[in-house]
Amino acid sequence: MSSTRPTTTQPASTRHPETRPAGRGRFAVSRRGLLAGAGVSGLALALAACGANSRSTATATAATASAGGTLYVLSTDTDINWDPAKSQSLAITSLGLVHRRLTTWDITADGVPAVVPDLATDTGTISEDGLTWTYTLKEGITLEDGTPITSAHIKYGLERSFASALSGGLGYHKTLLADAEGYTGPYDGEHLDSIETPDERTIIFHLDHPYGDWPWIVSLPAFAPVPEDSDDPATYAQAPVASGPYRVESYQQGNSVTLARNENWSAATDEVRTALPEQIVFSLGQDEDTVSQRLIADSGDDQNAFSAQLLTASKLAQVSADPNASARLATSDPGPLLYLAINTERITDPDVRKAIAYAVDKTAVQRALGGELGAGIATTYITPGIPGQEDYDLYPTDLEQAKSLLEGKDVPELVLLSQNNEARLAISEAVQQSLTELGLKVTIDPQSSDAYTERATQGDGSTYDLTVVSWNPDYPSANANIQPLYASSEIGQGGYNISRYSDPEVDQLITEASQESDPEAAATKWAALDRRIAEDVPAVPLVNRRNSFLPGSKVTGFFVAPFPAYPNYLVLGVSE
Q: What structural domains does the chain harbor?
């Protein structure tokens, strides 16, 4: 490539500020859902759906946007992985600044998320049988060296994501593409016949089965173009070839990443990226407390900065007490779902599960997360802000109703598996207290994050009866809420059906809904499924988390949308 290629100081690991290792799953979902609730200060919690309240809207208009200047992103993480094959980054965060995909997300402060064309001219043309999707690339789109982006670049980028050396990214396409089982990438000369490139601007995907959310799937990181002659799996994470408005100019492991303008990016072909800052600097390895204090103080370069991590409950209290800082605070509407999974293989009596649902005091869980500013009460499985989410409450808190359901029943001692951190233990203790008042004996079993994941997703389910889980979809579809958590194919072996819930009728309804290509019809089916599953009580929705972020006073365009609960990096700027 040209001299615009970035300089690096040492190899980076595969971790990324917005990345979680990929799970197994029927559609290769990420571990984001399991880890998202591990701690209230973690970046993982910032990746779930939520909405913008009046403060975030005010923040977005407090300063006048202008082109130029330097935007600073402050992060406690020590590296950023820019390889699209390894990434689980949201379309609107860091990777979206450097890599375009076939489609992308149109995210506004108060609107419903929409899938829109990015490198492609539209969101895809589907065949009558639902098995083939065809895309045409826009004219005038180029890589950072001016080379026209072709369908071969997209195909190669996808093929390399199958290589074991590049595992860790979102892999829905790996089980959706026809005849992809056993494929190990292009490095041995093999190619996927289910991806056709009949000419430089046309790419055709043949699926194993119909999948109505395919237009969302092609917005995920692996669908970014990668030129084969620039691909070195060992270094591409620090030296990628840009197709977006910015290129990686320098990468200093553990210290910083600097993005500079990609002069060959075509603004006329890009409807979602404003590319206002002259450069964007990611400051890595920052101390969380120090970052919060700097942003509250709001001086010097910190006026042009924001934190990649959400504010903890304690820091939120400090911000609320400072008039200047509280005026800049952006807090989402309730979004990420925190729920109590009930192991249906061990708690087989539906009346016992219903009793647990009626007994749990959700306001106690809410208090453990900082009160109403930290979370809203949840009653459904589908995330707020996602099409298909409809309000209902089958099991409002009612201790007397719960006790009546247990009359004459002998319920053995229950084990509540918990991650061994302060935040999760506080929530588990709130659940334990509620069930103690119901007359049940509940023992909390605290485990490290790795041990917890092993027991919850890899084991046979024999070591726990209950566990608190936080879930966040990888893309804005009810499919990504329901299928990973309640399809029987997701029980064990790395899947996230932690309730170990299995119902053939529900499995069939999930298949039918996932194959529906009409968005409105699909939303109706998912809404019905949400309620149908809730009747069996495999889980108790507890709360929907609220995420708070504090930008500097000169950051423009800062808001937190209904989905996802994260700032839209693609429209941020700095004022003079």
A: 337-545 (3.10.105.10)
